[in-house]
TrEMBL record:
<dbReference type="GO" id="GO:0016887">
    <property type="term" value="F:ATP hydrolysis activity"/>
</dbReference>
<dbReference type="Pfam" id="PF07726">
    <property type="entry name" value="AAA_3"/>
</dbReference>
<dbReference type="GO" id="GO:0005524">
    <property type="term" value="F:ATP binding"/>
</dbReference>
<dbReference type="Pfam" id="PF17863">
    <property type="entry name" value="AAA_lid_2"/>
</dbReference>
<dbReference type="InterPro" id="IPR050764">
    <property type="entry name" value="CbbQ/NirQ/NorQ/GpvN"/>
</dbReference>
<dbReference type="InterPro" id="IPR027417">
    <property type="entry name" value="P-loop_NTPase"/>
</dbReference>
<dbReference type="InterPro" id="IPR011703">
    <property type="entry name" value="ATPase_AAA-3"/>
</dbReference>
<dbReference type="InterPro" id="IPR041628">
    <property type="entry name" value="ChlI/MoxR_AAA_lid"/>
</dbReference>
<feature type="domain" description="ATPase AAA-3">
    <location>
        <begin position="48"/>
        <end position="177"/>
    </location>
</feature>
<protein>
    <submittedName>
        <fullName>Unannotated protein</fullName>
    </submittedName>
</protein>
<feature type="domain" description="ChlI/MoxR AAA lid">
    <location>
        <begin position="241"/>
        <end position="311"/>
    </location>
</feature>
Length: 325
């Protein structure tokens, strides 16, 4: 089998697994295909997902459904004001029998970590996630412990205006590859939910349709997706535009550019392509970049939303031609 045929077979395998996981999640989350697709893009791109919305729309349900669809280790951390950093990362405890310190792992030692209401914990506890999200490791008492792959943090948060919440630090937000909002369901989906969710608990019946080993193979396939030099330059032009804008006091970081390209590679693979198009970057600009940006005081007073500012900046960047070659 030549390289092209092998690549095609890999993409077919990826499509099959993604379809299985998507259908599994949609047994629980009805009428939100775009949100489910975004979650799968982040999973395949080895990123972390932030789900922000008002209470009761299914944020935790989505994160649990994704976690249950993969046969791997899953831990849930309920973020509260009294949660300590050691509850997240782990702690060294002195063993009286052996007369030595033993490390007891915290909640992040799992393939998929569901962080519920992350912005209800103190900034100090939120910061406990910084090292593990970026470097896939945890350092406690000068000892470093590696985290297994795949490793994904799926965090939910309520809008900052809600009572008892702390805004996530900029460094924390920047480590999330994408932020999505679920939104209220359409009327038909909400009526269907009354049938399926009041008599039984569909999440309890959800079974794994893939495992950690298969997800590792899929992320390797995504890594082989080609990004042409013009498309790379387009990605840099998009993020650079946010750094030059007078309407923003904080633009997108170089990490944001990396995340945008990695997400585009995953999205292209899910579409059955082994190359990234400028349209992929354009489509993903909102979920990948918006949460990292900070509008200026003047822009906020003028009623300009971060999304509106980003849309205008993206529209002003010239799209490269012949980007596939």
């Amino acid at each position: 089998m030549d390289a092209a045929n092998a690549g095609g077979a890999d993409l077919e395998t990826l499509a099959r697994v993604v379809t299985r996981v998507r259908e599994n999640i949609e047994k629980v989350i009805e009428g939100k295909p775009d949100v489910v697709s975004s979650a799968l893009v982040v999973l395949l791109a080895e990123g972390h997902l932030l789900i922000e919305d008002v209470p009761g729309v299914g944020k935790t349900m989505l994160s649990k459904a994704l976690a249950r669809s993969i046969d791997c280790s899953v831990r849930r951390i309920q973020f509260t004001p009294d949660l300590l950093p050691s509850d997240v990362t782990g702690v060294s405890v002195f063993n009286q029998d052996t007369r030595e310190f033993e490390f007891r792992p915290g909640g992040v030692f799992a393939n998929i970590v569901v962080g519920d209401e992350i912005n209800r914990a103190s900034p100090k506890t939120q910061s406990a996630l910084l090292e593990c999200m970026e470097e896939r490791q945890v350092t406690v008492d000068n000892a470093t412990y590696q985290l297994e792959t795949p490793f994904m943090v799926i965090a939910t948060q309520n809008p900052v205006e809600m009572e008892g919440t702390y805004a996530l630090p900029e460094a924390q937000r920047d480590r999330f590859m994408a932020r999505v909002s679920i939104g209220y369901p359409v009327e038909a989906a909400e009526i269907a939910m009354l049938d399926s969710h009041t008599s039984t608990a569909p999440l309890e019946d959800l079974e794994a349709v893939t495992d950690a080993s298969e997800i590792r193979k899929l992320t390797a396939i995504v890594g082989q997706v080609y990004v042409a030099p013009p498309v790379q330059r387009y990605a840099v032009a998009l993020t650079s535009a946010t750094r030059r804008s007078d309407d923003l006091t904080l633009g997108a970081s170089p990490r944001a550019t990396l995340h945008l390209v990695r997400a585009a590679k995953a999205y292209a693979a899910m579409q059955g392509r082994d190359y990234v198009l400028p349209d992929d970057l354009h489509l993903l600009a909102r979920p990948v970049l918006t949460h990292r940006l900070m509008p200026s005081v003047e822009a906020s007073m003028s009623g300009l939303s971060t999304t509106a500012i980003l849309d205008r900046l993206v529209a002003g960047v010239a799209v490269p031609e012949g980007a596939r070659a």
